[in-house]
Design goal:
With about 425 residues, the chain is of the alpha+beta class. The protein folds into three domains: about 100 residues, Nuclear Transport Factor 2, Chain: A, CATH 3.10.450; about 150 residues, Nuclear Transport Factor 2, Chain: A, CATH 3.10.450.350; about 110 residues, Distorted Sandwich (Glucose Permease (Domain IIA)). The chain has seven helices and 25 strands. Strands 13, 16, 17, 18, 19, 20, 21, 22, 23 and 24 form a ten-stranded antiparallel sheet that branches. A six-stranded antiparallel sheet has the order 12-11-10-9-8-25, with helices on both faces. Strands 3-4-5-6-7 form a five-stranded antiparallel sheet. InterPro entries: Cell_wall_metabolism_enzyme, Csd3_N2, Dup_hybrid_motif, M23ase_b-sheet_dom. Pfam families: Csd3_N2 (PF19425), Peptidase_M23 (PF01551). Its cofactor is Zn(2+).
Length: about 425
């Protein structure tokens, strides 16, 4: 009997002494819970921004490198030392208004600047690190290239720019395409049914921030039933020289541009008889008038030497350029002349700005063209062609453009937009 009692007593004691399971509420109440929150790094320009007091702003009028650092507790002798050390990497005098900069400051009570980062564009940046020793270098953000394929058709109620925007292209792409075909197509004589196809890259930073377009890889423009192809091709890999060539390896670039302006409308053509709007009488008009807003840049249509840059009552501000023994061009009614006599200018250089000086009723440039000393209509002239691609490069060229031309031809003419290939730089 005693043994039974003893056994029961032992079992009860063990049960009574055993720890009672706790529910979640009791665990929280009876145990100290420490939550350790890990700080995630915020990395930009190769720095963890959590380690600094960060100042981000843009260059304002009157800002200088010295003043920006002085505001953040850097002495002028130290500023001079930093600027002198950085001169081989970056000229601190070239800070441009509106460009972003970042100053990384210490997290102590003084919060003195330790690093200055300047961004001349959305991709490239310059680092001046003077935490201890002075380190300066240039770098760029990782860029993702997304290949785009687009097409469009000019309709009765649409312009080229409108059609291109509706196809998903930005203004920068439209300008690039216009430059590619600048020598072969007069974009202001387009008609309903003209159409185009493009393959080009768009650049993105951090996968989402649009950073503009890259070069056009290949293009096809059908104008008045005739097809014009253009392909980007590197002619010298060491020097980085490249250009656009058609499907027969002829360079797209020509001796003359089609027009002296990027954006314009033709208001008056070369004519043996025209009623002058200012002089109110009939007379010959030996030029082509391109209307554009005041201040629009005027491009010289071919390389040559400026033989006149002057002003007359009729011409207003004007520039005349001799290209060779055969061709001379003249640009009238400028608001401002930007070149001087004797100066050599290259095709596409800005030589002045559109205005309405002299005998002009509104802002435009009157473009005049001489061949062998006689004024002619440039829009009717058969102008000198470009040189073909070097024979040693033709085999490589035809091999490179074959798949690209096939892809261009396969793009349908509709509102088609396709992101096909993603690469990173």
């Amino acid at each position: 009997m005693k043994r039974i009692f003893l056994l029961v007593w032992v079992l009860v004691s063990v049960f009574a002494c055993s720890e009672k399971p706790k529910n979640d509420k009791e665990l929280v109440e009876n145990e100290e819970v420490k939550e350790i929150k890990e700080i995630q790094p915020v990395v930009e320009f190769g720095y963890d921004l959590n380690d600094f007091v960060v100042i981000k702003d843009t260059i304002k009028s009157g800002d200088s490198f010295g003043e920006l650092l002085a505001r953040n507790h850097i002495s002028y002798p130290r500023v001079y030392e930093i600027a002198n050390k950085a001169r081989d990497t970056f000229d601190i005098r070239k800070l441009q208004i509106g460009k972003p900069y970042t100053i990384l400051c210490s997290k102590d009570s003084l919060q003195a600047a330790q690093c200055f980062i300047y961004q001349p564009n959305s991709i490239d940046y310059v680092v001046l690190d003077f935490t201890d020793s002075i380190i300066t270098y240039k770098d760029r953000k990782p860029v993702k290239f997304v290949e785009k394929k687009v097409s469009g058709v000019i309709t009765e109620n649409s312009s080229l720019s409108q059609t291109m925007l509706e196809a998903g292209m930005g203004y920068d792409v439209a300008e690039r395409m216009a430059r590619v075909f600048d020598y072969t197509i007069d974009f202001f004589t387009l008609q309903e049914g003209d159409k185009f196809k493009l393959i080009y890259d768009e650049k993105f930073i951090d996968d989402t921030i649009y950073a503009g377009s890259g070069r056009i890889k290949g293009a096809l423009f059908e104008h008045r039933g005739k097809e014009f192809y253009a392909f980007d091709f590197v002619t010298d890999k060491k020097k980085g020289a490249r250009g656009y060539y058609d499907e027969d390896a002829n360079e797209m670039k020509r001796f003359f541009l089609k027009a002296p302006l990027d954006i314009f409308r033709i208001t008056s053509r070369y004519s043996p008889r025209r009623f002058h709007p200012v002089q109110k009488r009939w007379k010959a008009h030996k030029g082509t008038d391109y209307a554009a807003p005041t201040g629009t840049p005027i491009r010289v249509t071919a390389s040559g030497t400026v033989i006149k840059s002057s002003y007359t009552a009729g011409n207003g501000n004007y520039v005349k350029v001799k290209h060779n023994n055969t061709y001379t061009t003249q640009y009238l009614h400028m608001s401002k002349r930007l070149v001087k006599p004797g100066q050599y200018v290259q095709q596409g250089d800005i030589i002045g700005l559109v205005g309405s000086t002299g005998l002009a009723t509104g802002p435009h440039v009157c473009y005049r063209f001489w061949k062998n000393g006689k004024q002619v209509d440039p829009l009717r002239e058969v102008l000198p062609p470009s040189d073909p691609l070097d024979e040693n490069l033709k085999e490589e060229f035809f091999k490179a453009i074959k798949p690209l031309k096939k892809r261009l031809d396969a793009i349908p003419y509709d509102d088609f937009v396709d992101e096909e290939l993603v690469t990173e730089l």
